[in-house]
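Many introductory courses stop at the sequence. We go one step further.
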Amino acid sequence: MALALPTGVFGQFPNTPPAAPAPTGPPVDPTKAIEKLGGTRFKLGLLEFDQKTREIRIPAKVNMREGPLEYVIVHESGKVHESLFSTAVRPTELNVVMLLLNWKQSDKFFDFTEPERGGVLVKGAENPPASLVEVHLAWKDKNGADQACRVENWLHQVEKRAKITVEPFVYTGSRILPDGQFLAEQTGSILALYMDPASLVNNPRDGNDLDDVWISDETVPAKDTPVTIIFKPAAAPAAAEEKKPDSPGKPEIKKKTDPKPAPAKNKKPTR
């Protein structure tokens, strides 16, 4: 198997108390538990992922349909009272898979230079392209037919009185507490709408510093409906094609052509 666990999987985080009880039991050991499903597809715990496309499939369920939201998805031991979805997937395992697939944590989204303040949101941060995450959904409707959409279709920003903008979320990673515990594992935070330095993925949209402006759409299926959340790399913008010379590194030499002879003039007859 070509997958190898990178070093430095987790970063550093100031002394911040956990916001919720940690999931019970240790996370799956990725060095022993990765299973090959076929082709470029693998499995770790409850997660399925594709080494080629870098897509990750997260089994979840609709957790709430009314009230303000702070999260798109949390672990079932996390802040389920303010999350659209819940999942049994462990944040540690998801973080490992994202790093295995060469997702890059953004070090621009939060400022950690003043530890006493924790992670401070950086407005207008230029996050690296490899940290951008498209979030898609797949589920079956009440008739058993397959359905799919982007998660933006199920979320509204109250202040803007509209669905949230269609754009990627940002993989920000999480941190290790002084006692050695992974913060996202302690809080259960996976994808946050209201900025959260503990969450693996964060929301870059306007209003992400407000905790009362995000709500679900009325088309969200019934509570407990199974849903697969799919993390996909954000599509890269098409690069402008550069015109390359015929012989790179050498000036183009144009072949000289002889000028065309002037047309002959009609001679006047001599007398």
